[in-house]
Amino acid sequence: MTTHSTHTPSAERHTAKQQWAEGLMVFAAVTLMLAGLLDIFRGIMGIAEDDIFVTTRDYVFAFDLTGWGWTHLALGAVAVIVSLGLFTGATWARVLGVGIAALIVIANFLSLPYYPVWSVVMIAFSAFVIWALCVAKPNRSV
Length: 142
Known about the structure:
- The longest helix has 39 residues, at 9-47.
- It is built from four helices and no strands.
- By secondary structure, it is mostly helical.
- Residues 25-137 form the DUF7144 domain.
């Protein structure tokens, strides 16, 4: 009497791919939530016109620090909401996650003279989010 195993090489490969995709989605969700929370705090500092920001006069994109604060606060709040949707694996959250991360990259690029090191860190976080959301394949039943 022979027993048939339900595990085939293709089934194991499919499971490994699904686990990899789910891991990337969790990575993207956590990273986007972290970036969003940090952007919220940065926005609060900008609105309060905290002395931690460097001001420069000769920058092409000269905006009011309070305006940057509101921009970062809004982007951070949306990023946190989208990251909660990513934990469920929703397609809308993946699309919005790439969009919000791209907007965070642009906003941090434009605010480089105000807080350069932190802007570069946030750009890197957001780039990892975009990469993870674009590489992870959604779960599809075959």
